[in-house]
Write a structure and sequence with these properties.
Length: 243
């Protein structure tokens, strides 16, 4: 799925730059601006080009390729789906609301190749008229005490979720330890059965009990290291019994 970020009525050049940087972070390349003040656009361009711009570091290609439009429909042209964003404390939604975590699946279910994500002005957000152009509203869950987000922050959170990186990458940490083999599990199950038979009586010698032990070991998903420790413990018990 490809995405286009549309900023409707942006007023703060730093927010436009922050949005572009967030897009670059998560591999979303298309930026469209609707009714951006010419003065702000020129100011932003100057800021971005001055000392590698704090707000748009590493995203000059997105800034330079950004397109300016006079209306939201023009900015969304070529996209099969338009999703709006809104802080629901400001308005009563008249469209279906989907959580940000479900936006990618929602877009995929519509069978389109490109989806546009629409963000409103910093001070007012999108209006009902703006949202009437959208198929649904994306909501980023926030605490009631501070429900609104900075424009650049909202774009960053949305791009992170939509990029799929959160799902595509395995969690960082140690490599998964090798699992014990089926043969090892079966052998240790037999040793545990024999130990229990010696300690607790003949009723532990049955096939059903052995099967239960084997299933418990399998369900525990023991690593080779854990299996070695268990075998060492069993061997110690056996040697103690022989004394």
């Amino acid at each position: 799925m490809e995405y286009r970020i549309i900023l409707a009525g942006p007023r703060n050049p730093d927010n436009i730059g922050a949005a572009a940087r967030a897009m670059a972070n998560f591999g979303i390349r298309e930026l469209a601006l609707v009714n951006a003040f010419d003065s702000d656009w020129k100011e932003a361009a100057a800021v971005w080009r001055r000392e590698a711009s704090v707000s748009a570091i590493g995203s000059m290609d997105i800034i330079e390729s950004a397109k300016l439009y006079d209306s939201i429909p023009e900015a969304a042209q070529g996209c099969g789906l338009l999703l709006g964003t809104a802080s629901l404390h400001r308005l009563k939604p008249e469209r279906d609301v989907i959580p940000l975590s479900g936006a990618a699946a929602y877009a995929a279910s519509r069978g389109v190749s490109k989806t546009a994500i629409l963000f409103g002005p910093e001070k007012t957000g999108l209006t009902h008229d703006d949202l009437s152009l959208c198929s649904a509203i994306i909501n980023i869950p926030t605490l009631p005490a501070q429900p609104s987000m900075n424009l650049g922050q909202a774009v960053a959170v949305a791009c992170y979720e939509l990029s799929g990186l959160v799902r595509a990458q395995p969690p960082a940490g140690r490599r998964r330890a090798p699992a014990a083999s089926t043969a090892e599990l079966d052998r240790v199950a037999g040793e545990i059965s024999r130990l229990l038979t010696r300690k607790k009586g003949r009723h532990w010698a049955g096939a059903a009990q052995l099967r239960a032990i084997r299933q418990s070991l399998t369900d525990a998903r023991l690593t080779k290291g854990a299996m070695f420790a268990l075998k060492t413990l069993l061997k110690g018990n056996e040697e103690q019994d022989e004394k």
